[in-house]
Amino acid sequence: MTQRFTVAAISFDLDGTLLDTVPDLAAAAQDMAAELGMPPRSDDEVRVFVGRGIPNLVERCLGGRAQNAALLQQAIAVFKRCYRARNGERAAPYPGAHDTLSALRAAGFRLACVTNKAADFTLPLLEQMDMRHHFASVVSGDTLPQKKPDPAPLLHAARELGVQPSALLHVGDSYNDIDCARNAGVPVLGVPWGYSEGRVLDAKDCDGLLSSLPDLLERVALPTDI
């Protein structure tokens, strides 16, 4: 029998969980490469680089060139400018994202978005995708000194939502999400359609895998059932 979680709040990763953002990130990476005179990275390569924030993504795009600290800092600045122009251009919600968030809020769950993406990109993207209003808490990659997989972002979200970590369920596409949740004492469900830095999520490493975002509605005990 499928486990149902008795929680009061649910947090979501963004890139690769609620939204497919690789088309915009890859376009920005290609713009950066063209400006800096470097070979471009493919969409599939960029997909593997997503998950630990923009500086890490840019460093991986540069490969061996990232040893040049001045070039790395220049590339990060160029990428941010390029991505600001591309952010939301081709990004799209995964199937059922809007309906699932709406249903969870209507059922009384408090929701958070916990991402390693910087706030300058997270908040405009959530607004553009008509998702910002769903979240009582948004924890971006620069909200705190620590990012996932450190437990601090989820613990911060739990405080903002007014719940204990054990009453928060996290949903994400990567081992950053799983490790963050485990470190925070938060149950976690994985999604197999995301990026996960090229690693395949194993159900044994989390508390289960979702088959779709609407599947989440069958995995939580609604407040009226608690």
Description:
The chain has helices at residues 22-36, 43-49, 54-62, 69-86, 97-107, 119-128, 152-161, 175-184; strands at 9-12, 19-20, 92-93, 110-114, 137-139, 168-172, 188-190. The chain is α/β, with parallel strands linked by helices and 226 residues long. The protein folds into two domains: 5-18 and 94-221, Rossmann fold (3-Layer(aba) Sandwich); 21-86, DNA polymerase, domain 1, CATH 1.10.150. It has a five-stranded parallel β-sheet, with helices on both faces. The protein has a two-stranded antiparallel sheet with strand order 2-3. Helix 1 (22-36) crosses helix 2 and helix 1 packs across helix 4 (69-86).
What is the strand and helix layout of this fold?
Blueprint: E1 9-12, E2 19-20, H1 22-36, H2 43-49, H3 54-62, H4 69-86, E3 92-93, H5 97-107, E4 110-114, H6 119-128, E5 137-139, H7 152-161, E6 168-172, H8 175-184, E7 188-190
Parallel strand pairs: 1-4, 1-6, 4-5, 6-7
Antiparallel strand pairs: 2-3
